């Protein structure tokens, strides 16, 4: 078992009204030093084993379903435990 | 003339669309999201609502529903398809139409009688309108801001593929005031406002929306 994380964020040039709303709330809470907020999505995919094939499937899932390439970028990374065996991964 | 109206879990305006088809003189055929079956229809309406709860992104999960496999294939073969509101979002997610729909600029759900100009009357959904006809129909959306990159917007404008444009007020921040577009072939139309809520005088802002449905019925009769 392993966990692969997919982060999906709106492309930088796309206005993010939710992030703006969060940003607008910060001064009301007394936080003044934050200059911008953008909100995205984090997906945690549990996979049976960590192989190159499985990882490329996760990329495909991220591209086809989890993100919309017209408006969003995604990033895939593996979340590791100490005893994870990485042998055999490219 | 059979016009199918798809019901997804979370569709809201399917019954209104069915009534609108009937008022236009067509035979409305209910279609179910979970069936690989278009029941022999000649055209399809994807209605408004919140299919699959708008989870993930609006339209993102509906796109992969069994009925959409059939709709996408039929649309690519030239069948007239009209996506209204959530239906427009599904068409963009299906890549039948370019661009995407995002949360309204002002972050509020908008519900108003909206003035529009019909700029392309060559589609099977708009042929009963006069060129540049100005109409009023209901608009109601939370994620109705149409976006695409500059090159795509220029292409849409250059090829006359902007079907409807917002007049007076841009209610959601849509780029270039775009309210509806069509595909290259002209058979698939996506529209954020709701013509199916403007088909009888009893309720809604008049009957300006009816011509979307009479257009399809006459287009199918001609075909």
The number of distinct β-strands of chain B equals 11
The CATH homologous superfamily of chain B is named Class I glutamine amidotransferase (GATase) domain
N-to-C span of chain A: 18 Å
Q: What would you call the structural class of chain B? A: alpha/beta
CATH fold label of chain B: Rossmann fold
Largest sheet of chain A: 3 strands, antiparallel
Strand content of chain B: 25-35%
Range of helix content of chain A = 25-40%
Number of domains of chain A: 1
Strand order across the biggest sheet of chain B?
2-1-3-4-11-10-9-6-7
Q: In which order are the strands of the major sheet of chain A placed?
A: 2-1-3
In short:
Chain A has helices at residues 17-25, 52-66, and strands at 2-10, 40-47, 72-79. By secondary structure, chain A is an alpha+beta fold. Chain A has a single domain (2-79), classed as Phosphoribosylformylglycinamidine synthase subunit PurS (Mth169, Chain: A).
Walk me through this protein's architecture.
The complex is a heterodimer of chains A (90) and B (223). Chain A contains 2 helices and 3 strands; from the N terminus they run βαβαβ. Chain A is α+β, with helices and mostly antiparallel strands. Chain A has a single domain, classed as Mth169, Chain: A (2-Layer Sandwich). Chain B has a single domain, classed as 3-Layer(aba) Sandwich (Rossmann fold), CATH 3.40.50.880. Chain B starts with a strand and ends with a helix. Classes of the chains: A alpha+beta (90), B alpha/beta (223). At the A-B interface, α1 of A face loops of B.
List descriptors.
heterodimer; A: 90 residues; alpha+beta; Mth169, Chain: A; 3-stranded antiparallel β-sheet; elongated; B: 223 residues; alpha/beta; Rossmann fold; 9-stranded mixed β-sheet; two-stranded antiparallel ribbon; globular
Tell me the layout of helices and strands.
The complex is a heterodimer of chains A (90) and B (223).
Chain A: E1 2-10, H1 17-25, E2 40-47, H2 52-66, E3 72-79
Chain B: E1 2-7, H1 14-23, E2 27-32, E3 43-46, H2 66-76, E4 81-84, H3 86-93, E5 100-102, E6 110-118, E7 133-141, E8 145-147, H4 150-158, E9 162-166, E10 178-182, E11 188-191, H5 210-222
Parallel strand pairs in B: 1-2, 1-3, 3-4, 4-11
Antiparallel strand pairs in B: 5-8, 6-7, 6-9, 9-10, 10-11
């Amino acid at each position: 078992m392993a966990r692969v994380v997919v982060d999906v964020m709106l492309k930088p040039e796309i206005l993010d009204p939710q992030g703006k709303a969060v940003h607008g709330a910060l001064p009301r809470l007394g936080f003044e030093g934050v200059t911008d907020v953008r909100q995205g999505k984090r997906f945690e995919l549990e996979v049976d084993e960590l192989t190159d094939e499985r990882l490329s499937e996760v990329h495909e899932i991220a591209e086809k379903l989890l993100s919309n390439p017209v408006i969003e970028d995604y990033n895939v990374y593996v979340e590791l435990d100490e005893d994870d065996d990485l042998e055999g991964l490219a | 003339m059979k016009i199918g109206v798809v019901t997804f879990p979370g569709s809201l305006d399917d019954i209104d669309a069915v009534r609108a088809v009937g008022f236009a003189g067509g035979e409305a055929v209910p279609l179910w999201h979970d069936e690989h079956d278009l029941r022999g229809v000649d055209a399809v309406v994807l209605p408004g609502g919140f299919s699959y709860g708008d989870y993930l992104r609006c339209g993102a999960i509906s796109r992969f529903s069994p009925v959409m496999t059939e709709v996408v294939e039929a649309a690519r073969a030239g069948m007239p398809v009209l996506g209204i509101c959530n239906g427009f979002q599904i068409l963009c997610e299906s890549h039948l139409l370019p661009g995407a729909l995002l949360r309204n600029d002002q972050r509020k759900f908008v519900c108003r009688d909206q003035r529009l100009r019909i700029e392309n009357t060559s589609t099977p959904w708009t042929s009963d309108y006069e060129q540049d006809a100005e109409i009023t129909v209901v608009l109601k959306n939370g994620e109705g801001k149409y976006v695409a990159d500059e090159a795509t917007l220029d292409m849409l404008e250059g090829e006359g593929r902007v079907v409807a444009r917002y007049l007076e007020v841009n209610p959601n921040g849509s780029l270039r005031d775009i309210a509806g577009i069509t595909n290259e072939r002209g058979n698939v139309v996506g529209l954020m406002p709701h013509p199916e809520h403007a088909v009888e005088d009893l309720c809604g802002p008049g009957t300006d929306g009816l011509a979307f449905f009479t257009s399809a019925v006459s287009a199918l009769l001609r075909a």
